[in-house]
Write a structure and sequence with these properties.
about 700 residues, 3 domains, 5-stranded antiparallel beta sheet, 19 strands, alpha+beta, about 30% helix
Length: about 700
């Protein structure tokens, strides 16, 4: 039977179709655009007005693109597409914008367990300043320092997925600009704002949901560096080329002026990406792939004088098993990522216990959650006293790189821009160290990454107040005269022929460094260090004087590696001073978990003495304060950071070092005792028999 002749279906009526399209046209004119097709235009069963597919299969996104003015993108358009107007037609952009990756700027957000801060790094001024909008200890709120949204996005935008901080202040959600009475209020934008020129850095959904290989992260970062915030998503999607740079437009230019409009970046779309109906295929997936996570969550270890080669290391044991990051770090439409630490309180009010290490492998008897989620093996921990689970986290034995006698250097994506092209030596700022074994609030030991802040500040009534790094550079560039790197230019100055002649002599001072003897190399190193310390004192003293004069500060100081430097009594000299504001200068650390090592590489696998001995890495390894300045701190043992009494630790170590021999003595004693009893019993029985 023909479909149109089915008794329950009427054939199409031409006049009814015409009326339908007439009303559709009126509706389009009123709404200012044509919405992307959705499965059901009315509210879904859960009450949501947004699109659902509710299946496990990937939904094909062949959709129209729209710009920030809600106009449809055509092949000859010159404006960038907007994720708010495009993705937001079918997905709850407002709810998504309150997720963990976007809500740091919002005042009503639960800050959660402390994580890696934004570290503002400037090698020209020797700055590594930990920043956070969350109320995390030993970090500085950018708004208090005077760092506005624009500066933060320009500095860190390449690692921000957009939204929240990236929205221009005049269109930011009201929740993002309303702070509690006790929280610091955002500084007002500068009189001449560049936001109208750059546009907003909206949440770029494809940063996470694009299929690996379909999205160009570095192209997006280049646009952000050029201040083309609104154009970044278009560049990353590779659907067109961007001509023009907002950074070349002068401050104060009227964005509505015709001459300024001509200078704004223009998009040349690739017409081959558009179908006949004007739609574009967006290759995306529901669950982000690992490649997206790596853009911000990669790390490399630095040891033995350089960055350790990747091919010599094994991956995280879970990745080697074929798992994805999102298998554990899950989220719903609220985009509040499960972080997976013990005791996590998730806004969804669902139990997250079995998405932590212990919960996944051991289950949770209290909530009747079974062990072995995702096929995880049940760890035996044979012979391990339960006390260890009260004192140690899972990651203390299984997480992070294998510890050495001294904490290694660590480079992270957020701090060192891993993933971007460049030649890195491993000595670049910020100087992050790890693993550092210290206690968290739950009283258990975790491995951490750690950094000592370095910055310029005013000292008022014993309190350190960091100065905006951009202001520091503008004020000190003439006095410091750093061309490339603060530490290299000041602490390792190139010696002149006169100095070389004094050390090497008339015949040798022209020789190449590789031709120097060991003794000559040592002499040159000592002379370089001496010259560097003198130059550091001279330049930093002059820079502090310039800051005090320009900023009208009574006393300016420079902080590095836990030391506070102030101008000395004589010209071109420095002095170290004591301050009571220890939180502003001490080590800041945050827990680390990955890469997770298998059981065979865990601490303690070799026996009790791997941890209970004088050389045990968990307690006896050290970490040393480091920074751009010339002075370092004294090596600090992990046991000291953990608050373990030295005498108690010595007693335990001595007990466990003789534990094996003690076992043999006990066994031998019991055997002798049993033999004695047998002999005595035999004699008694013999007497009775006689």
């Amino acid at each position: 039977m023909n479909f149109c002749q089915h008794p329950r279906r009427l054939p199409p009526q031409p006049h009814l179709v015409a009326i339908k399209w007439l009303f559709s046209g009126i509706l389009i004119a009123i709404l200012g655009g044509f919405p992307a097709p959705v499965a059901n235009p009315v509210s879904a069963a859960d009450g949501s007005k947004f699109a659902h597919s509710d299946g496990d299969a990937r939904y094909l996104h062949q959709i129209h693109l729209y710009d920030a003015d809600n106009r449809r993108i055509e092949p000859d358009s010159t404006k960038p597409y907007s994720s708010v107007k495009t993705c937001g037609r079918c997905h709850d952009y407002d709810t998504i914008s309150h997720g963990w990756h976007f809500n740091a700027f919002l005042p009503d957000t639960d800050d959660g367990r402390e994580g890696e801060p934004w570290i503002w790094t400037d090698p020209r001024t020797g700055t590594q300043l930990p920043l956070s909008y969350r109320q995390w200890s030993q970090t500085f709120d950018p708004r208090v320092i005077g760092i506005d949204q624009w500066d933060m996005v320009k500095q860190f935008g390449g690692r921000i997925p957009g939204g929240g901080l990236g929205h221009a202040p005049d269109i930011t959600d009201a929740d993002a600009t309303t702070a509690d009475d006790d929280s610091p209020q955002p500084d007002s934008e500068p009189a001449v704002s560049r936001w109208p020129l750059s546009g907003s850095l909206e949440i770029d959904c494809l940063v996470c949901h694009g299929v690996a290989g379909s999205y160009d992260f570095n192209a997006r970062r280049e646009q952000i560096a050029d201040e083309n915030f609104a154009w970044a998503a278009t560049a990353g999607l590779r659907i067109g080329t961007i001509d023009g740079q907002v950074s070349r437009i002068k401050d104060g230019a009227d964005p509505d002026d015709e001459s300024t409009q001509e200078k704004l970046p223009q998009v040349r779309y690739d017409s081959q990406r558009f179908a006949a109906d004007g739609t574009v295929h967006i290759d995306l997936i529901r669950q982000p792939q690992n490649n997206a996570c790596y853009q911000c969550h990669s790390n490399r270890t630095v040891a033995d004088g350089g960055i350790q080669a990747r091919w010599t290391h094994d991956e995280d044991v879970h990745l080697r098993a074929g798992m994805q990051c999102t298998d554990c770090h899950r989220n719903g439409i609220d985009h509040h990522i499960v972080r997976g630490f013990p005791g996590e309180d998730h806004p969804a009010d669902q139990s997250m216990i079995t998405l932590s290490c212990a919960g996944c492998h051991l289950g949770d008897a209290a909530s009747e959650q079974l062990a072995g989620r995702l096929g995880s093996p049940l760890p035996q921990h044979a012979g391990l006293p339960p006390l260890h689970f009260e004192k140690l986290s899972c990651t203390a034995c299984h997480g992070g790189p294998l510890p050495r006698d001294q904490a290694m250097g660590i480079m992270t994506s957020l701090a060192h821009s891993l993933g971007e092209k460049g030649h890195r030596s491993g000595s670049e700022l910020p100087a992050i160290a790890g693993p550092v074994y210290a206690k968290q609030a739950d009283g258990r030991i975790y491995p951490h990454r750690a950094v000592w802040p370095a910055y310029w500040a005013s000292l008022v009534d014993g309190k350190l107040n960091p100065i905006d790094p951009e202001t520091v550079y503008d004020v000190t560039r003439r006095s410091l005269r750093v061309r490339q790197d603060f530490a290299t230019d000041l602490l390792a100055p190139k010696l002149g022929s006169t100095e070389l002649k004094e050390v090497l002599g008339e015949d040798r001072y022209r020789s190449k460094p590789e031709e120097w003897t060991a003794e000559e190399t040592a002499k040159i190193a000592a002379l370089t260090q001496q010259a560097g310390e003198a130059l550091f004192a001279e330049k930093v003293s002059a820079a502090l004087a310039a800051i005090e004069q320009e900023q009208k500060i009574d006393q300016a100081v420079y902080v590095s590696a836990g030391w506070v430097y102030a101008r000395g009594d004589a010209d071109d000299t420095l002095q170290k001073i004591e301050v009571d504001d220890h939180d502003a200068i001490d080590m800041i650390r945050w827990p680390m978990a990955h890469n997770v090592r298998p059981a065979g590489w865990s601490l303690g696998i070799k026996g009790c003495t791997e941890c209970h001995s004088e050389s045990a890495k968990l307690f006896a390894s050290t970490v040393t304060a480091s920074g751009p300045g010339p002075d370092r701190g004294e090596p600090v043992m992990m046991a000291t950071l953990q608050g373990i009494d030295a005498d108690q630790r010595l007693a335990w170590n001595q007990l466990f070092s003789g534990r094996a021999s003690f076992k043999y003595v006990i066994v031998a004693s019991v055997a002798i005792l049993l033999l004695t009893l047998l002999l005595a019993g035999g004699m008694v029985i013999g007497r009775i028999a006689r």
